[in-house]
Amino acid sequence: MSTLQKLRRPPFANHIYQFKVQLEYLEPSVWRRLWVPDTLSLDKLDRVIQTAMGWKNIHLHAFMIGQVRYAAPDPDWFARMETRDERQWDLSAVLANGVGEFIYTYDFGDDWRHRIRVEATLEPSEKNHRPLCVAGANACPPEDVGGPPGYSDFLQAISDPAHPQHLNMWERNGGPFDPAGFDLNAVNAALRKLRL
Questions:
Q1: Alpha-carbon distance 160 to 149, whole Å?
Q2: Which of 6, 53, 92, 139 is the Cys-Cys partner for 181 at CB 3.0 to 4.6 Å?
Q3: pTM for the whole thing?
Q4: What CATH number does the domain located at 14-139+182-193 have?
Q5: 107-164, pLDDT tens digit by residue?
């Protein structure tokens, strides 16, 4: 291993968190179970969640951990509360006081709220030193569909060929949509490509 490769290697984790990431307000439930090292910064956790859920990461996001908001710095975004720079905080720091769950919101227009529950703290091993999706269920809603109410309308329209919006939703989605679709292998292949 070259010196450059050693310098790029992420710090060794003390713990691996097992998270259940679940979209709120949807039935059937859309969720992913992830293993992530405690050395992961929140901006990188955003990329892991985006990849695991199937989002395209084209909208703003924020984490609410306890009473603290973490997000990417944006001087044009007015927040009613202090926002900490998510790039400066890793999981070992923000979860140090026994935080059991927190909220990740993606796309403030559609308001996709993900409840993230800390299910377990694991010992690091060769098997879990990088982010990994170990389980999940159901397809992520398409981008810009209008949040949970819009997704319900989308599902009705795309599943019913007689629906007046069926063709429009079909074209917008680029073809059929399987709400139960979830491919664990494809998610992990995408996670392996992330440069963290």
A1: 17
A2: 139
A3: 0.90
A4: 3.10.290.30
A5: 999 999 999 999 999 999 888 889 999 999 999 999 999 999 999 999 999 999 999 9
